[in-house]
Amino acid sequence: MKLVYLSGPITAKNEIKQYENIIRATEICAKLRQMGISVICPHTSSMFHGTMLTHEEWIAHDIRQLFVCDKMYLMGNWENSIGCKIEVKYAIEHKNTNRNCNL
Questions:
Q1: Which domains does the chain have, with CATH numbers?
Q2: DSSP 8-state secondary structure symbol assigned to residue 53
Q3: Whose CB among 16, 25, 74, 81 lies 3.0–4.6 Å from 43's, allowing a Cys bridge?
Q4: Where does the chain have alpha helices with state H?
Q5: Are 96 and 23 in contact (CB under 8 A)?
Q6: Closest to 57 in 3D by CA, of 44, 71, 42
Q7: 3-state secondary structure of 98
Q8: Contact 28, 102 (CB under 8 A)
Q9: pTM across the whole model
């Protein structure tokens, strides 16, 4: 079974927008799992940890998760996220398959 990393914006200008990002990722994650796809969703693995880590530490953690995945799905608006751009760059350099996720 393939393991997919779900990449999408988390950080936002305010807490409401950040919460909306997390909810959207959670919805997509649930749909992918209903389709029988195993998913790593950084939005849900970190949503209650707040500011325990710096942004750089979160990215390093996310890259370690991405490393074990076979594919990466990109949520809408990923192009506006610094973290997503770093993840995409990593995936391209390490030959993970990127795919837009239009769920």
A1: 3-100 (3.40.50.10400)
A2: S
A3: 25
A4: 15-34, 42-46, 55-67, 82-93
A5: no
A6: 42
A7: strand
A8: no
A9: 0.83
